[in-house]
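Researcher: Quick test of sequence recovery. Tokens follow.
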């Protein structure tokens, strides 16, 4: 067992007692499940109107269609620049807007993050996918003013066992996060469902990038941590809230660095592989409703399928 003065398991370099000890005690299996809590007035302000929820549903449906469109094209030999053009043209030809294009100065319509790139990889015609790569393609569309945001990590041909392990752990981490979304549950329950699982699989959860509230804006109030963090706001998940769950999971340590030249590309600090999956979800009276299900996911009744493996 880890001692109070040992380095924390999360790789922060801090002593265990100064880092995750309290959270681990709070989340130990011996404790009874959380009782649903009532939302505060502040929480209630985050609840979307039926009209807005309908808009979010439509944005999610389109983003799902876009993902099904692009998925079979992501193969060895295609450049990330070509993926960007395909995403852009499909979105625009359907009368919608690629949310990333021009967002805070971002130059492309999609993020393509290969191997040790954690997120915000910028597509380029010079960057060609090769057998053995893993690549996250993160799509965000604006449909009649509402945002849909989802991503998947693809394995290009045969990948290493290590890469496959990471991708599967990340897929399950996202699903566990979605399963933690219940009415009356604190926002922190998402991280509590994700981080201990990921760490038990020998991987780590990126701290610096998170999920988010989403609606008529890309990144709305509140931050959805996927790692256990004292700064997680005391939001009570309440029917009508919409948010993304999008854990970025590293094979090595959780720390990342941003490219100083392009100002966007985020890489693992230790050079290890990183994967991510993302869905936009709606809090309901029961299980979270996944708004960004793709047509193929709907047809097969799963929220995610990776290389033929279904995740519930
Ligand atoms: N789609 C990312 C997210 O999940 C954000 C990308 S912002 C961009 O929140 F500017 F890099 F496109
Ligand atoms: Co995204
Ligand atoms: Co997002």
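Model:
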């Amino acid at each position: 067992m880890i001692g109070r003065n040992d380095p924390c398991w999360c790789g922060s370099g801090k002593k265990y007692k100064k880092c995750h000890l309290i959270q681990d005690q709070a989340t130990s299996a011996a404790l009874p499940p959380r009782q649903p809590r009532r939302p505060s007035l502040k929480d209630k302000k985050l609840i979307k109107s039926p009209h807005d929820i309908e808009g979010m549903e439509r944005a999610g449906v389109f983003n799902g269609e876009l993902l099904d469109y692009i998925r079979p094209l992501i193969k060895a030999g295609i450049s990330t620049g070509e993926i960007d053009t395909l995403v852009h043209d499909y979105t625009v030809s359907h009368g919608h807007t690629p949310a990333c294009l021009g967002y805070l100065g971002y130059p492309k319509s999609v993020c393509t993050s290969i191997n040790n790139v954690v997120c915000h990889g910028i597509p380029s015609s010079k960057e060609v996918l090769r057998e053995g790569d893993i690549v996250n393609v993160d799509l965000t569309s604006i449909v009649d003013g509402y945002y849909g945001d989802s991503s998947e990590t693809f394995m290009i041909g045969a990948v290493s066992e290590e890469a496959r392990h990471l991708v599967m752990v990340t897929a399950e981490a996202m699903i566990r996060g979605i399963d933690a979304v219940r009415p009356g549950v604190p926002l922190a329950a998402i991280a509590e469902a994700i981080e201990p699982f990921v760490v038990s699989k020998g991987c780590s959860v990126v701290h610096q990038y998170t999920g988010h509230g989403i609606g008529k804006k890309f990144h709305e109030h509140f931050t959805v941590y996927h790692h256990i963090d004292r700064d997680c706001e005391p939001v009570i998940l309440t029917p009508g809230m919409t948010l993304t769950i999008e854990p970025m999971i590293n094979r090595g340590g959780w720390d990342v660095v941003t490219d100083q030249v392009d100002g966007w590309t985020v890489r693992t600090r230790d050079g290890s592989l990183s994967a991510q999956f993302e869905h936009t979800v709606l809090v309901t009276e029961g299980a979270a409703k996944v708004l960004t299900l793709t047509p193929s996911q709907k047809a097969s009744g799963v929220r995610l399928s990776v290389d033929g493996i279904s995740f519930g």
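Residues 50-70 form the longest helix (21 residues).
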